[in-house]
Amino acid sequence: MASVAEPELTSRSGHTPEGQLQTSVEAEVAAFLEHERQAGELLDYLVLPRFGLDICVFAEWTAGRTVRLFELKVFTTSSNRVGITSGNQVELLLHSSADTYVLWILADSRMPLGASRYVLFDSVVGRDAVMGAGPRHGKQNDFRVDQLMDTATTWATLSSRLLSSMRPSAASHVVGG
């Protein structure tokens, strides 16, 4: 169950839709980690926003350590695409060594609050969802939004999957289905 209210993902609130998503995801992650620390399952944690990607989480659990890097994307009708920044984001999609650590969150701002408008996916799924011949340097890289949104979930389900992905026992991070 989500402990943070679902973000609106509109430009009316004075923040960008991606900024709203980031604020909500950071708060949800911090609330979960603090709860787990209070319960004795988590020894320590550090959440770093904009640490190369949008959110970086280092967590030391009683059962081991985890590092998760989250890149957040929001589809808006004004841009009509979800671009992948050249450089580091393309590198993350090109190299499988980062697959265990990096998760992507896509939100569709066209959908109303409460709707299935969120997808949590890893770089394996991301590579497959890049338009054209996949991610490459020197070209415009965009995600195929419709392909990714086939597995869209609500904010509550996204929250559950997001929090599960941070546990050291999370064997697979392909959680979009």
What does this structure look like?
The protein has 177 residues and is an alpha+beta fold. The protein has a single domain, classed as Trna Endonuclease, Chain: A, domain 1 (3-Layer(aba) Sandwich). Helix content is 29%, strand content 27%. The chain is built from five helices and seven strands; from the N terminus they run H-E-E-E-E-H-E-E-H-E-H-H. It has helices at residues 17-38, 88-94, 123-128, 145-149, 155-165; strands at 42-51, 53-61, 64-75, 83-84, 102-108, 118-122, 141-142. It has a five-stranded mixed beta sheet. Strands 4-7 form a two-stranded antiparallel sheet. The radius of gyration is 16 Å and the shape is globular. Mean pLDDT is 88; it is low at 171-177.
Topology:
Blueprint: H1 17-38, E1 42-51, E2 53-61, E3 64-75, E4 83-84, H2 88-94, E5 102-108, E6 118-122, H3 123-128, E7 141-142, H4 145-149, H5 155-165
Q: How many DSSP H or I helices?
A: 5
Termini Cα gap: 18 Å
Strand content: 25-35%
Cα Rg: 16 Å
Largest sheet report: 5 strands, mixed
Tally the beta strands.
Answer: 7
Uncertain stretches = 171-177
**Structural domain tally:** 1
Helix content: 25-40%
CATH names the topology as Trna Endonuclease, Chain: A, domain 1
